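Quiz preparation item.
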């Protein structure tokens, strides 16, 4: 049990999401999953994930400002929340940061709502 708790603290929340129908969902699992949904709980963040999911390549924060219609500081704040949750990846190129969707994390997130009857 201690090993699993250590893994949850060190990993981004999106890397640890377990299905809500899991018979052994712990308090820690529930908190981790809730933190991912909290990161997506803002319309601007959902829009950012949408824009990045539809982009072919990583996108500069400067390009997101125009698309989202918010100040750069606000967009950067939202991006940090999404990166911390493990939903986005950040790459530094000189003075600018480029962002892309963490496909693996979003794939795991897609399994959160699976129930026992799915896939039969």
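Solution:
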């Amino acid at each position: 049990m201690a090993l699993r708790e250590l893994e949850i603290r060190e990993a981004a929340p999106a890397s640890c999401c377990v299905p809500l129908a899991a018979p052994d969902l712990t308090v820690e699992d529930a908190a981790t999953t809730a933190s991912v949904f909290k990161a997506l709980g803002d319309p601007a963040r959902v829009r950012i994930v949408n824009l990045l999911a539809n982009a072919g390549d990583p996108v500069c924060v400067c390009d997101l400002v125009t698309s989202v219609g918010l100040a750069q500081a606000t967009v950067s704040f939202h991006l940090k929340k999404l990166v911390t949750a493990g939903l986005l990846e950040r790459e530094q190129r000189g003075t600018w940061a480029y962002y892309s969707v963490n496909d693996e994390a979003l794939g795991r997130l897609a399994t959160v709502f699976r129930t026992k009857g799915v896939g039969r």
